Amino acid sequence: MKIRGFEPVSDSFKKHDAPIILPQRGTKTSAGYDFATPINVNIAPHQQFTVWTDVKAYMQEGEVLILDIRSSIGINKNLMLANTIGIIDSDYYSNIKNDGNIGICLYNNSNYTITLEAGERIAQGIFLPFLEADNGNTNNERVGGIGSTGKV
After folding, report:
1. CA 52/CA 147 separation, integer angstroms
2. Run of H or E including 58
3. What's the pLDDT score for residue 70?
4. Using CA atoms, how far apart are residues 59 and 39, in angstroms rounded to an integer?
5. Residue 27 maps to a domain
6. Cβ(63)–Cβ(131) under 8 Å?
7. Domain contains 144
8. Which of 31, 113, 117 is closest to 68 using CA atoms?
9. In a domain, 20, yes or no
10. pLDDT < 70 stretches in the chain
11. pLDDT tens string 79-122
12. Taking the mean position of all CA atoms in its chain, how far away is CA 29?
């Protein structure tokens, strides 16, 4: 039985012909799994670009994958996640709109065009458990991909 991890999206949902790079931890005690860009990217100053990884994440109910920028990308290249933090819910996996393809939207906070090379590690993901509150819960189910919760 699979517990949590990463796998390629199905071919019909791939955004690139580039080889898929599954996230890996940099060291045996690293908390985060490094996500790499599968393609070369140029991001103009004060613009954003979504890097589609062609990777999806599976996990148990009650778990979430939190995405954040790698410190070297934020500090050395002045890039940040456009949404400041990524939340990948367990039901995003294999959804009908994009098969759970994880997109990492980067914002260039500098005055220079930033270049990322294919294979460069850009973000990191950490699997975490979460708690439910006594109220504010729902039985609604996901109907699509990014931004689809709360829609009918």
Report:
1. 15
2. strand 55-58
3. 97
4. 26
5. yes
6. no
7. no
8. 31
9. yes
10. 142, 144-152
11. 999 999 999 999 999 999 999 999 999 999 999 999 999 999 99
12. 21
How far is residue 36's CA from residue 125's CA, in Å, rounded to a whole number?
11
What is the count of structural domains for the chain?
1
Residue 143 falls within a domain, yes or no? Answer: no
Q: Which amino acid, one-letter code, is at 60?
A: Q
Longest dimension (CA), the chain: 48
CATH number of the domain bearing residue 92: 2.70.40.10
Domain interval for residue 97 = 5-129
> CA-to-CA distance for 25 and 123, rounded, in angstroms?
11
Written as six digits, the tokens of 113 are: 């065009």
With helix as H, strand as E and coil as C, how does the chain read? CCCCEEEECCHHHCCCCCCCCCCEECCCCCCCEEEECCCCEEECCCCEEEEECCEEEECCCCEEEEEEECHHHHHHHCEEECCCCEEEEHHHCCCCCCCCCCEEEEEECCCCCEEECCCCEEEEEEEEECCCCCCCCCCCCCCCCCCCCCCC
